[in-house]
Specification:
Among the domains are: 63 residues, Dna Ligase, domain 1; 72 residues, no CATH class; 86 residues, no CATH class. The chain has a two-stranded antiparallel sheet. Strands 3-4 form a two-stranded antiparallel sheet. Strands 5-6 form a two-stranded antiparallel sheet. The chain starts with 21 loop residues before the first helix and ends with a helix. The protein contains 13 helices and 6 strands. Helices cover 48% and strands 7% of the residues.
Length: 346
């Protein structure tokens, strides 16, 4: 019986090729990179597009001042902190690549409605000098009723009656931050209230640790600061007056602050009489110990800091002479001596 014929010689035996051809491998690799690149571009585009959109809490109608000499990175940081843009980095590179950063105009900007980061960059480069802004100053220690009357005189859309009603209902005395503001002519009472309270919240947030560690609550701090604002006349005197008043609070001694009487009677300190000091009111700190029920005005940062960081002293009394100089005393006898020396014989 004949053996089967082997059609292949040993050297010609078929060996299957288990690896893809080189060209096919390179093509798949290229396609893989291409797909990855396209997906990355799409994701990057979507991400940048989202960052370009206005933020949900865009502060419409809030004046934002860019001071002369502020560099581009500081500008982008400021606008991001206010919520004008979502990303300071996107604004920075938009300004660098599409505009001349050296031409950014120092100005007070008011964005009437939410706009994109690209539009913000355009406004910065072109300046915002067409905006009609009114300079308005809310003075330290000023009560909101006086503030309302002054605002109504310069803002056409503003109602002092509505401002006072809203501020009273919301208990905002003491929380309307004193500062110079630049506001549009179209500002009404709600716009101004929101601006003043937002500024207050921003400033107070920087002091939160000190407030939390203080013996007084935030409301009590504002009440005491509002008295100090009216009683003292400089950062140094505020710290010492604060020391005197807090020393009194610690031992349950009446504050005897004329400023609280001024608030009730709505008359200047210099016009107060001995009879005025007898008025029966919870704001009369001669008759009632502790703090008045509410702030008697809107204290500035110096007065608030005076409560948080008072001078260290053993004083319980002070007077102010005709020149505005303060004289302090530890005892009542020393206090009487100061009165005789600095007030009665002038």
């Amino acid at each position: 019986m004949s053996e089967p014929i082997n059609q292949f010689s040993p050297s010609e035996e078929f060996i299957p090729n288990t690896s893809p051809p080189k060209k096919r491998y390179l093509l798949k690799l290229f396609l893989g990179f291409f797909v990855f690149f396209v997906i990355a571009v799409i994701c990057l585009y979507a991400y940048v597009k989202n960052l370009n959109q206005p933020s949900l809490d865009f502060p419409s109608n809030q004046p934002i001042t860019i001071e002369q000499g502020t560099d581009i990175r500081q500008i982008t940081q400021i606008l991001e902190s206010f919520g004008i843009v979502k990303s300071k980095h996107l604004l920075y590179y938009t300004l660098v690549f599409f505009y001349d950063p050296t031409q950014i105009k120092a100005s007070t900007y008011v964005f009437e409605e939410p706009i994109t980061t690209k539009e913000v960059a355009k406004r910065l480069a072109e300046g915002d000098f067409d905006t009609d802004l009114i300079r308005f100053t809310h003075f330290e220690g000023e009560r909101f009723t006086l503030l309302a009357k002054r605002a109504e005189a310069v803002l056409p859309e503003f109602s002092s009656e509505e401002f006072i009603k809203e501020a009273t209902e919301r208990g905002l005395e003491g929380r309307l931050y004193p500062e110079t503001y630049f506001v549009p002519e179209t500002f009404d009472e709600i716009d101004l209230l929101n601006l003043l309270t937002q500024t207050f919240d921003e400033e107070i947030s920087n002091l939160q640790d000190e407030i939390n560690s203080h013996a007084l609550t935030l409301e009590e701090i504002l009440v005491l600061a509002s008295i100090i604002e009216r009683e003292a006349n400089s950062p140094d005197s505020m710290k010492l007056v604060s020391s005197v008043l807090q020393n009194r609070l610690e031992i349950g001694m009446a504050l005897q602050a004329d400023a609280s009487i001024e608030y009730v009677l709505d008359k200047p300190l210099k016009e107060l009489t001995p009879e005025d000091l007898k008025i029966d009111s919870p704001y009369n700190t001669y008759l009632y110990t502790g703090l008045p029920p509410t702030p008697i005005g809107n204290p500035g940062l110096d007065a608030i800091m005076a409560v948080l960081q008072p001078a260290e002293s053993e004083y319980f009394y002070y007077i102010t002479d005709e020149e505005g100089e303060f004289h302090y005393a530890k005892t009542y006898q020393q206090h009487l001596s100061n009165i005789e020396k600095y007030l009665r014989y002038q």
